[in-house]
Design a protein that fits this description.
This protein has three helices and 13 strands; from the N terminus they run E-E-E-E-E-E-E-H-E-H-E-E-E-E-E-H. It has helices spanning about 85-90, 115-120, 225-230, and strands spanning about 5-10, 10-15, 20-30, 30-40, 45-55, 60-65, 70-80, 90-110, 130-135, 150-165, 175-180, 185-190, 205-215.
Length: about 230
């Protein structure tokens, strides 16, 4: 049902995207699935990134940059839809552009920024209504020798788009929202209806913990050259 991309002689990538935006990426080697990523097909503006590198079989780390000033916002860990292409190319990339998406794990919705700030109380530190904390990049305790970052973050932002589409294969509905967070970075977010009954509205502030996925737009080796040869003919 999905699109097949040949990465190497025995390695291929299969991407299925539903009309709802639900996406499944399978990395296949010798007809066996070695990596499977459920994610959301992000449609937000790409964010400039640098120092992209795979840290294990699943996760990549990179620096998220401010698209206007080009300064680093924060380092993040993310699971990439096109990780197979990156791995085949050596696992590193100096610069690129990332379309960022997220799957909500624990989420809270506030009516607006005023309600969000009021919910924090008077004691303790205050978090901005557009904060982004790459929690998966730090070990909370003494890390094991084999510890690697995980694709998780805590963030908050304003809802600028919201809908509740239905996955055409499973028949299950989910909330799909677009959140504008720190440095005006936009993230497409999927939220299970079991976690949140009502669809968030524009202007709401959403905060919580999220699993981060993204797409660099990398093409398999030889793709560009093949297109050029076809064009010359």
């Amino acid at each position: 049902m999905g699109e097949t991309r040949q990465i190497a002689a025995k390695l291929s990538e299969h991407v299925w995207t539903d009309a709802s935006g639900a996406r499944l990426v399978a990395q296949v080697r010798d007809r066996g699935i070695e990596y499977l990523l459920p994610c959301l097909a992000g449609t937000t503006p790409a964010v400039p990134v640098r120092d992209v590198r795979l840290v294990d079989d699943e996760t990549a780390t990179l620096d998220l940059l401010d698209g206007v000033e080009g300064e680093m916002v924060c380092p993040i860990a993310v699971e990439l839809e096109d990780r197979a292409v990156l791995a085949d190319a050596g696992g590193q990339l100096e610069t690129g552009s990332l379309v960022l998406a997220a799957l909500a794990e624990d989420v809270t919705v506030h009516a607006d920024a005023e309600a969000y700030y009021a919910s924090q109380g008077d004691d303790g530190p205050k978090f901005a209504a557009d904060h982004f904390i790459p929690s998966g990049t730090f070990a909370l305790a003494e890390p094991a020798s084999d510890w690697t970052p995980s694709a998780h973050a805590l963030f908050a932002g304003e809802v600028i788009e919201a809908e509740t589409p239905v996955n055409t294969v499973t028949g299950a509905a989910f909330h799909r929202i677009r959140v504008r967070t720190i440095a005006a970075i936009e993230v497409d977010v999927a939220i299970a209806t079991t976690d949140l009954e009502e669809t968030p509205a524009r202007g709401n502030i959403v905060t919580g913990t999220f699993f981060l996925t993204g797409r660099l737009g990398l093409q398999p080796p030889g793709t560009t050259e093949k297109r050029r040869r076809w064009f010359r003919r």
